[in-house]
Amino acid sequence: MYFTFAWRYFKAKKSTNAINIIAWVSVAAIAFATAALLVLWSAFNGFEGLVKSLYSTFYTDLKVTAATGKTITLTPSQIAELKKINNISNLSLVAEEKALLQNQDYQAIIELKGVDTNYTKVTTVEQSLVRGKFLLGDAENPGAVMGVGIENAVAILSDRAIGALTVYLPKKGADDISNPLASFNEGKIIPNGAFAVEQGFDNKYVLTNLSFVKLYMGFKPDEYTAVEIAITNTDKEKITKNEVQQLLGANYVVQTRYEQNSSLYNVMRLEKYAIFGIFILVLVVAAFNMIGALSMLVLEKQKDIQILQSMGATRGWIQKVFLTEGIVLAAIGAGIGIILALTLCFLQLQFKLIPLEGTSFIIDYYPVKLVFTDFIIVAATVFIIAITASWLPSKRAAAQPFELRN
To answer: Do 368 and 348 meet the contact criterion of CB atoms below 8 Å apart?
Structure first.
């Protein structure tokens, strides 16, 4: 019943045309804000999914590092116990250190990451190769797979390189200031392949075999810098993390993929919240228009209110009618905005209408991803603001005095 009256008031021609104009301005503002927020959030979701997929190439589901210092000790029995945890599908032992890579006159500071044969089972780096093969060799004949940025820095192409590259690794515990060269071990690695993931990785990492790095770093047999773990069910990530932490103890730090990149994900989340804050401000402006339109409607419908009161309508019933009128305005605006957002996102997904500027991106168009909860949040926010904006005019409508006239 409330909706019937509210819908008739919305459709009916007003004696003052300004009421119609202000009402449609409110609807347009809500529609624009709703569509803009959903499109922007969908773009953020798309970029977030893209970044997560890129970072999952290098960052595993779980990573174990030292609570203090740079290295951890993992005995064969501890590794066996880790593998017995139900949700762990595989793990890779890692020895990582900064190093100097040299190709004749070309040099680059790199992150040299020694990994075992399980590394391709816990990451997808091998799928990101653009040249050569994923061959890491052994301690005596170490191979290297490097980022394309490192290739450029040392002026080589991995699949066409002639000869080995020189790598300088710091000796563990070396602190001879008088002879800096004595603090480094010099080794040779053969470039076998190159990967392209994301600029931050491509300009930083060189992968080689674990035994080579441990040998030149002077590590003990059970000494590593990290163990990287892949899990079967990501929904049980926290449970698995707690089981690993409980097994290894307080001297180890266990991090999820999110915790390994918490600063990045927090920034992305704050940006999304900032966009939502701007959306709220736009809706507040639309709410003022709604208040004006409903206040003028109350003045125009004074005779109707009198008639309804004479027919037995209570003040609460009349207030609900005008509250519903505000909800109708908001629902029409939000509905138009949602349809517009869905249309724009569908067109972007199908036809890639808006390209990304530049040539250094993995994709050449803005990615979008529709998330159902975003639509729920936006609809709920519009509803709450509509109720708030309609409350005062509806209260005034209900407070109209009832007068019987002959």
So the answer is: yes
